[in-house]
User: Which sequence fits this backbone?
C-alpha cells in the first residue's frame, strides 16, 4: 500500500450562502466530518502514511487534527503542492471512492454537494459497521442519548445525532439529518433537510430541502440563505451569550434617549454618520455614529439595538463588508463566533474602529475568550470606556 495524499478543494470563495467557519473537509456529514471518513478508510486500508494538501484554511485542519489522537504518527498538512510521485492522490470532494460526482461551480452547487454527502453516507451505512450510533429501526439511526416522544413518526432513511430532543407530533424523514444537541419542538416536520448541531426548531415549523444552523436558514434547492431573527422559530442553543440579558436591554432602553439628545447637542445638530454593518453572518443593519463626544455619546444610537435584543453592551465591534474582507479566513472564523457589542476590548487599547490596524488582534483575543476574562475585563471597565473621548 502506497502513501496517500488528500487534496482539499479550494471552495472557500464559493461558500457565500452558509459562510461556514470551517473549510469543506471539516463540514459535518452525519456524525463526523468529511475528512474523518477518509482517515477511517486509510486505517482500514492500512495506509502507511498520509498528508493533506489544503489551500483553504490549512491552520484549521491542523488544529482539528491536533485535537484528535487519530493515528500513531502525525499527518502533514501543507498549503503548497507537494511531491505526488509514489503516492495515491485523492480529492476530498466526496466520500471515499465516490464516483461520477458533478463539478461544483457555484455556491448553490456547494450546498447541494453537502446535502448529497449526507444521503450517500446513509446509503453506505450498515449495522455491521462500527458506529457510535445504532440502527433504531431499518434505515433509522440514533446517536447516544437521543430522546423522542412516543408519537414521533420516523421515515427512513434518516439520522439523529447524539442527545437530540424531538418533541411530540414531529415527523422526521425521509432523508432528514438531525445534528447532535438539536431540539425540535412539537409538531415539527423535517424532510430532505439538514439541522446542524445545537439548533432549536420552533413548533409547527416545516423544513423541506433546507439546512439550518442556529437562526440561519439555507434553501438548498434555490441556493440562498436568510437570517431568521425570531428565536421562537429558529435559534442557536449554544449562542445565549450573543443575546443581551434582560438587565442590559432595560438599561439600554432607559439611557438611549437621553444620551442621544445630549449627543445631538454636543454635535451642534450635525446628523450621525451612517454605515451598513453585519450583526451576524447574514443580518445587516444601518449603524448611526456621532462624530464628537465620548464613546457613550458617539455610540448612543447603538443602544437601541441593545434594547431590541440585536446587540450586546460588550462584544467585538461591528464590521462592514470591507472590514470583513481584510481579515484572514482563520481570523474571520474566530471573530464571527463572538457577540457584537457597543463596547469592545479594543476600546481599552484606543482602537475604536475596525479600520485601525491593530483592532483585529484585540477582537481575535476577545472572540477566543468571549465567555471569560476578555468579556469580564470590558464589563469591569465599562464606565471608563463610556467616558473615553477618542482622539480624532
Assistant:
Amino acid at each position: 500500500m502506497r502513501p496517500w495524499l488528500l487534496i482539499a478543494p479550494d471552495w472557500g470563495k464559493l461558500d457565500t450562502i452558509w459562510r461556514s467557519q470551517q473549510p469543506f473537509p471539516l463540514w459535518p456529514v452525519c456524525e463526523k466530518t468529511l475528512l474523518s471518513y477518509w482517515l477511517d478508510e486509510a486505517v482500514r486500508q492500512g495506509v502507511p502514511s498520509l498528508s493533506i494538501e489544503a489551500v483553504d484554511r490549512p491552520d484549521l485542519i491542523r488544529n482539528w487534527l491536533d485535537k484528535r489522537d487519530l493515528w500513531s504518527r502525525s499527518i502533514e498538512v501543507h498549503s503548497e503542492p507537494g511531491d505526488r510521485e509514489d503516492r495515491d492522490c485523492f480529492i476530498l470532494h466526496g466520500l471515499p471512492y465516490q464516483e461520477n460526482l458533478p463539478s461544483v461551480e457555484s455556491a448553490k452547487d456547494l450546498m447541494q454537494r453537502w446535502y448529497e454527502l449526507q444521503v450517500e453516507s446513509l446509503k453506505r451505512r450498515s449495522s455491521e459497521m462500527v458506529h457510535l450510533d445504532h440502527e433504531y429501526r431499518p434505515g433509522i439511526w440514533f446517536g447516544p442519548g437521543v430522546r423522542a416522544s412516543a408519537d414521533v413518526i420516523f421515515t427512513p432513511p434518516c439520522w439523529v445525532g447524539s442527545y437530540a430532543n424531538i418533541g411530540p407530533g414531529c415527523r422526521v424523514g425521509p432523508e432528514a439529518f438531525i445534528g447532535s444537541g438539536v431540539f425540535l419542538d412539537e409538531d415539527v416536520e423535517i424532510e430532505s433537510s439538514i439541522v446542524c448541531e445545537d439548533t432549536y426548531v420552533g413548533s409547527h415549523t416545516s423544513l423541506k430541502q433546507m439546512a439550518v444552523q442556529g437562526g440561519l436558514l439555507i434553501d438548498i434547492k434555490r441556493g440562498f440563505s436568510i437570517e431568521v431573527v425570531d428565536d421562537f422559530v429558529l435559534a442557536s442553543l449554544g449562542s445565549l451569550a450573543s443575546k443581551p440579558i434582560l438587565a442590559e436591554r432595560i438599561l439600554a432602553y432607559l439611557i438611549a434617549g437621553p444620551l442621544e439628545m445630549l449627543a445631538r447637542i454636543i454635535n451642534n445638530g450635525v446628523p450621525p454618520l451612517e454605515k451598513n454593518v453585519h450583526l451576524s453572518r447574514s443580518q445587516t443593519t444601518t449603524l448611526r455614529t456621532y462624530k464628537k463626544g465620548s464613546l457613550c455619546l458617539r455610540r448612543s444610537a447603538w443602544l437601541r439595538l441593545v434594547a431590541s435584543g440585536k446587540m450586546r453592551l460588550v462584544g467585538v465591534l461591528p464590521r462592514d463588508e470591507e472590514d470583513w474582507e481584510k481579515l484572514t479566513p482563520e481570523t474571520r472564523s474566530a471573530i464571527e463566533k463572538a457577540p457584537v457589542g457597543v463596547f469592545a476590548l479594543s476600546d481599552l487599547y484606543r482602537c475604536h474602529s475596525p479600520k485601525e490596524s491593530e483592532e483585529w488582534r484585540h477582537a481575535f483575543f476577545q472572540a477566543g475568550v468571549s465567555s471569560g476574562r476578555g468579556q469580564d475585563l470590558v464589563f469591569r471597565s465599562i464606565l471608563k470606556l463610556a467616558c473615553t473621548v477618542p482622539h480624532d
